[in-house]
Amino acid sequence: MQTSPRTPGTAIHDLASRLHRLPPSCGPVRLIGVDGHAGSGKTTFAGHLAAELGGAPVLHLDDIATHEELFAWTGRLLREVIEPLRRGETARYFPYDWNTRRFGPARTLPPAPVILVEGVGAGRRALRPWLAGLLWMELPRDEAWTRGRGRDGAAQEEFWNGWVSAERGHFAEDPTRPFADALVRQFPEGYEVLPGPSETSGPDRALTQGDGPSAVC
Question: Is residue 32 part of a domain?
Fold first, then answer.
């Protein structure tokens, strides 16, 4: 993917146009992963991108994960969402309520030309075969976590302490950024979309397995 300018709305508009032209990856659906560290702005960006895509559905992985399964939800997601979409059927899943610690009423997700999957772990290896594109929010983890803690307040401090350890372990074992097709940087005046490691790496180019800032400017 080519670099997009930071003019408000331009980068997202150009990205949406490219995503629409991708071949379907999961049955009739172009499944797009939006991954990054907690607090990196995934949900906000996915909302903007979904609007630019004409109201594309967004599956939030916060609805799939639970207190007991911060990252051990792969089987449930494949069973309830990926497999039905692959068959061209409407998916049916049960969003988790983080306050009551219970699964809520069923929610449906019909096949659509583009569906965004947003959340930490959206680019994990078990999902990548079903993704038409993978986007990584380019914000260093410590900065993202600081933003997330500030957003959630002191009431969530204990949860965040456990989350940070779990996220470190997840990305150490199953990194996403090296496989991203594009890196998304947020600025006060908009977004910038840069080629990701999966596009800029090659047989003569080393691929960094870390999750720090990109060298692409």
Answer: yes
